[in-house]
Design a protein that fits this description.
355 residues; alpha/beta; Rossmann fold; 7-stranded parallel β-sheet; 3-stranded mixed β-sheet; 13 helices; 15% strand; binds nicotinamide-adenine-dinucleotide; binds 2'deoxy-thymidine-5'-diphospho-alpha-D-glucose; NAD(P)-bd_dom; lyase; dTDP-glucose 4,6-dehydratase activity
Length: 355
């Protein structure tokens, strides 16, 4: 049995679905169901007793301790977090609460559980913390990609809170011997991506005839990885990673934002042409830049490739086409996530940028 936190979010739900498509090992899924948690992502698991969903907070150490005592998982994979940089700029507090304080309480509960395990169960137990390349800060155009030993230089409240959580996880290994693994991944994309992030927002807005807002000059570079490749990397690290080690995960796919948006427009022009025959590119607009916007992220994934033999299976071209197809087929999912709270936040964010 494994315990996944944040398994109703974008990456967590892909992970749970992929895990149960390859294994009969039960997953306990602990998720607070914030605006980003969506049980509809897991609707194919209704009635599947290999999936036990628990609504709750990673910061609730009484709840977590009770779950651990009851289910005795052999591993925990911690996806739960506030994850959106723009939200961390408009309101950092939830990020501090979940990503730092919540991770601390989770670690405390896990430490208590692990201390009481015996023999093989204690030896084999793992706590895998899912983190981000953003903790390393921003690269200039010519700097080499981030390796695992790159200095931490987080620039947003989101990345600072993730950096703090990484440090706590590291300290629980060095001080208490907790068998931890940490992964730092680049930008993911794929099914169930909440339409506040660049790729799903552009697809959803394009189809709705709305503007496609590019922050600043659109030349910021991100390194894109198809979400199912991130999930396979996590499985591989869980299986073979060396305790206490950090593994960077990425797809060697650096692209400027404007190129991503052009690609999405071109795919939509091909797959769902606009009625009047014009390109979706005509919907692109420039808006005020994100404060403190990191210019470039790039992951050097050589360590996980060399030491654990992991490689992504999608190229950017195959992954982005699958993603656009998924959003075209899953329009009801999009409609359902566009809840009142989500719309209110989108309005606030973009009204301020366009003013
Ligand atoms: P997401 O925002 O889509 O999902 C986060 C999930 O965590 C949601 O289901 C939410 O309900 C849950 N959650 C939030 N606070 C919680 C709490 N206090 N207790 C329990 N559950 C809580 O995020 P995502 O994009 O799926 O990211 C998952 C993890 O991967 C995060 O830790 C993020 O930092 C990391 N990451 C994301 C990316 C990316 O490109 N999305 C890249 C690298 C790393
Ligand atoms: O690098 C990994 C990180 O990737 C994860 O840790 C975060 O959880 C995840 O949200 C993502 O962060 P980004 O800030 O890179 O993702 P986002 O989709 O918000 O933005 C991607 C780029 O696109 C960024 O340079 C900002 C820009 N952008 C974004 C939006 C939403 C726009 O130009 N317009 C937009 O409307």
């Amino acid at each position: 049995m494994i315990l996944v936190t944040g398994g109703a979010g974008f990456i967590g739900s892909n992970f749970v679905l992929d895990w149960l498509s390859q294994s009969d090992e039960t997953v306990i899924n602990l998720d607070a169901l914030t605006y980003a948690g969506n049980r509809e992502n897991l609707s194919s698991l209704i009635g599947d007793n290999r999936h036990i969903f628990v609504q709750g907070d990673i910061g609730d150490s009484v709840l977590v301790a009770a779950l651990l005592a009851k289910h005795q998982p052999r591993a925990i994979i911690n996806f739960a977090a506030e994850s959106h940089v723009d939200r961390s700029i408009l309101g950092p507090e939830d990020f501090i609460q979940t990503n730092i304080v919540g991770t601390f309480h989770l670690l405390e509960a896990v430490r208590g559980y692990w201390a009481n395990l015996q023999g093989d169960a204690k030896q084999q137990f793992r706590f895998l913390h899912v983190s981000t390349d953003e903790v390393y800060g921003s690269l200039t155009k010519d700097e080499p990609a981030f390796t695992e030993t790159h200095r931490y230089e987080p620039n947003s409240p989101y990345s600072a809170s993730k950096a703090a959580s990484d440090h706590l996880v590291r300290s629980y290994h060095h001080t208490f011997g907790l068998p931890v693994l940490t992964t730092n991944c680049s930008n993911n994309y794929g099914p169930y991506h909440f339409p506040e992030k660049l790729i799903p927002l552009m697809i959803v807005n394009a189809l709705a005839g709305k503007p496609l807002p590019i922050y600043g000059d659109g030349q910021q570079i991100r390194d894109w990885l198809y979400v199912k490749d991130h999930c396979s990397a996590i499985c591989r690290v869980l299986e073979a990673g060396v305790v206490g080690e950090v593994y960077n995960v990425g797809g060697w796919n650096e692209k400027p934002n404007i190129e991503i948006v052009h690609t999405l427009c071109d795919l939509l022009d091909e797959l769902r042409p606009r009625d009047e025959g014009k390109s979706y590119r005509e919907q692109i607009i420039t808006v005020v830049d994100r404060p403190g916007h990191d210019r470039r992220y790039a992951i050097d994934a050589s360590k996980i490739e060399r030491e654990l033999g992991w490689k992504p299976s999608e190229t950017f071209e195959t992954g982005i086409r699958k993603t656009v197809d998924w959003y075209l087929v899953n329009q009801p999912w999009v409609a359902n996530v566009q809840s009142g709270e989500y719309r209110a936040w989108v309005e606030k964010n973009y009204n301020e940028r366009c003013a």
